[in-house]
Amino acid sequence: MKTYLPKVEYSDRKWHLIDADGLVLGHVAVKVADILRGKDKPTFTPHIDAGDFVVIINADKIRVTGQKETKKFYMTYSGWYSGDKYQSVSEVREKHPERLLMHAVKGMLPHNRLGRSMIKKLKVYAGQDHPHSVQNPELLTIDA
User: Fold this and answer.
1) For position 112, which CATH number holds?
2) Distance (Å, rounded) from C-alpha 45 to C-alpha 10?
3) Domain presence at residue 88
4) What is the secondary structure of 32-64 as a DSSP string?
5) Distance in angstroms (rounded) separating the CA atoms of residues 121 and 38
6) Which end of the chain has the lower number of beta carbons within 10 A, N or C?
7) How many alpha carbons fall within 13 Å on the CB side of residue 82?
8) DSSP assignment string, 74-102
9) For 27, phi and psi rounded to 5 degrees?
């Protein structure tokens, strides 16, 4: 019996819509990472990008548990001496709320060129509006 391997030209991609209003950040990130990798499909292959597109709306209303709002920090580094900046979750949420989800999902994908191509299929928007209604994304519910 031979093992089935899908072709690289895998083009049966769907569009999923997730409303993140009131959902926990980690729960949403795990589900989105599985969809982007294609782990929810029976034809999953680790070395092929066979995942679907994901559109997330209301990223500014996502929830974190515990005291992460003030005690969790994101670090960026400019490359210069003393060029490191630390921002709490609440500071990131004020300026760029979509970065919370992007950072969480990116950490769950492979850290190579395959992961960089997978993260391009994730579209995150802070508000209710998104420009992907033409693709007819199907609404995906995540248990809170």
Assistant:
1) 3.90.1180.10
2) 11
3) no
4) HHHHHHTTTSTT--TTS----EEEEE-GGG-B-
5) 12
6) N
7) 0
8) EEEE-SSTT-EEEEEHHHHHHH-THHHHH
9) -65, -40
Q: Is residue 71 part of a domain?
A: no
Residue 120 lies in a domain: yes
Domain residues for 133? Answer: 15-65+97-140
Task: pLDDT tens for the chain, 144 residues: list them.
Answer: 787 777 767 667 899 999 999 999 999 999 999 999 999 988 888 888 889 999 999 999 999 999 999 999 999 999 999 999 999 999 999 999 999 999 999 999 999 999 999 999 999 999 999 999 999 999 999 886
Amino acid at 118: M
Domain-embedded: residue 6: no
Number of domains in the chain: 1
